[in-house]
Amino acid sequence: MTRKKIFVFFLILFAFIGSFTLLNRDRYFGKKISSPYEISVICRSGSAESSTSVRQGIDQAAKDLNAEISFITLSRENNAEEQVSLLKREIRNGANAIVISPVNSEDLKQPVEEAMKSVPVVAMQSTVESIKGLPLISCDNEKLGSALAQAAAGNGRVPRRIAILRNSMDCSSIRQRYSGVMKILGSGKNKIEYWDIPNGSQEAYDTAKGMLQSSMADTIIALDASTLEAAAKAEQDLLKTGSAEVQIFGMGRTNTIVSLLDGQIIDSIGVENEYNLGYLSIQTAVDKINKKQNTDYPSINFAVVNRKNMYSPENQRLLFPFSR
Fold this sequence. Notes:
alpha/beta, Rossmann fold, 6-stranded parallel β-sheet, 6-stranded mixed β-sheet, 12 helices, Substrate-binding domain-containing protein, SBP_2_dom, Peripla_BP_I, Bact_Solute-Bind_Prot2
């Protein structure tokens, strides 16, 4: 073989090797594409609609962080037994992490402690108070309660008859909101009464409607979205019959709540940044899967929103899931 032919042979060989390497560089030299993180999110509500904004933040985090989400609501509001069963099921099914809004501390303590031995667990919005080291992503619920109570109290010159609607008081976030409300209203001249509202949308509506008809309260404060929605719907229906108007304040958002706020059936709502709540809960779960050490978890921002300020740019982002 002549030198010229040898040169051409090696030239072709090097060209082939170069082309092969270029075409397969990702396989041999690039980062391997890892399987997505399997994360289960277990709510304490029975309605996906009440979690629209939270779900939007969760979905964006899943896209950004290579996660697949199983988003699970309960068949009945605040059903601790079902939540425990779902927690065990998701671990058996191979979830890499669990994000959970615990119904209460008493029923969830042992199941969550057991779950934490197998996978990372992140508490979202409410927590299991007796478990050390359980990450919590939430706003300051006590401050949220105080801020809403301050709006309900107004200038404080005219005493009011205020009804506080109680439901799921064994849930940490609800109890903290109640504590914040009472810090503002408990020592004033206002007359306070308490309405115990059951779970279930129809039962809650019926109870709230009956109390609105029989009570002399001129102001009501609801501590969660489902109770607020039930009471506001009842008030809307009673106004059609000529009943006296009651000022309604509450916490949480659904599309129905936003509509009733816009229609001036609800006076003001306290609402946390649910998009950030969902996003940061998934981000924390992914960090825990990757064993990142972090004990300083951010507090979610919140606002008290009324008809006058609901369309400000910052409040639109809180109230309308797709205003981003």
